[in-house]
Amino acid sequence: MKTTFKYLTMCLAAMLLAGCHATRLPESEKKQQEQPAPQEDTLQKTAPRQIVVILSMDAFRYDLPEIWSTPTLDSVASVGVHATIRPCFPANTFPNHYSMATGLYPDHHGIVNNNFYSYSLKASYSISNAEARAYVPFYKGEPVWNTVQRQGLHAHVYGWVGTDAAINNSYPEKNVLYDGGRSRSTLTDMVVEDLCNPDTTAVPDLIMFYFDEPDATLHNYSATSPRVGQIVESIDRQLGKMLEQLRKRCVLYDRINFIFTADHGMCELSPDRYYNIYSLVGKRIHYWYNQRPLCLEPYENYDDEVYNLLKPHERDGHYKVWRRYKVPEEYHYGKDTDRIYPILVQPDPGWTVVYDQNSNSRRPSPGEGAHGFVPEAQDMRMVFYAFGPAFKRGYEHPVEFENLNDHLIITTILGVQPADNNDCKPEEIKDLFVSE
Question: Are 323 and 218 in a shared domain?
Fold first, then answer.
């Protein structure tokens, strides 16, 4: 469990803060500084360059830094900003990462879940299918790497959802696809090399990278398990090493704005919290996806009957059933009739609800975890840490905002126009930044 590392945290914070104020200039720039200052009317009126580095740590739940020792993240909070944020609906990896990139709800950007079928494309999308991930027509909206590149800046992206496809005929300038065999240390080394390029004009304005942990471990072990603790603390150490290398080597260190965040949280499951709806609706279902939400397409003309069979059992089944066009407004979901099945069954937090003709289908084991529950569920919330010249220092943000606002945070810092028709909410994130 978490130990107090007060001294270590203070030292890390001091180093991070020092880096924000002390730039190591090349000799050419030092000589320029020695020259007489130009008259005011000859000074450039442009703002100093800003760089954004954003890391998504899959399923890094809001309370993991309270359970385990995370001195690096603690120090970031002390010199930057910290917030608890929530995912978009559905709270799954692919729809949320693409929301973070586009500033759009899944219903608007097209990646409506980890797996779905498009009637118009006559094709299935699956996170495990490389050909499907690369099929451009699945993706709507404009990912932020395209946004910044279209406006003359440069983006390097490592393993983010959407980079398999040439969306709007464009990839990130440097595009390293996800590889589950690539270590976190290798990834951070690649980021460090990008930022420490001796040719500062070649340093990207935006770097986005992704860790598949602690999600992979939390699917099998509870948040308080030592196995999870090892992963969380290992991630924190890796971030500390990365920041230390950058502080020592990177000429532009004090221009970098770091964001450490996540796509969703994780709920613990139980074999006792399980419900199979097959006994209610029988063979009336033509197609289905056993995910959260459970997606059902009844046989033709059976929609009403299936809904009416499920509705009376919401309480004992521990779920909510919605017609696609009746999903609660706050979830911004159900309008994409091309990709969302007619009936959705949303399990209560911590519950497993399936459609399975095998009444003995496997129940979750104790300690297993899952996401995809409603965004307001406590355990679906996740972390947001950020520091750098654009962010306030030592600021605890009181507003719980949705992670799709990452698109707006990035474009605001970089001074580019965000993508049109995004769903971001400027009023929820404006207080993160220092006043001009």
Answer: no
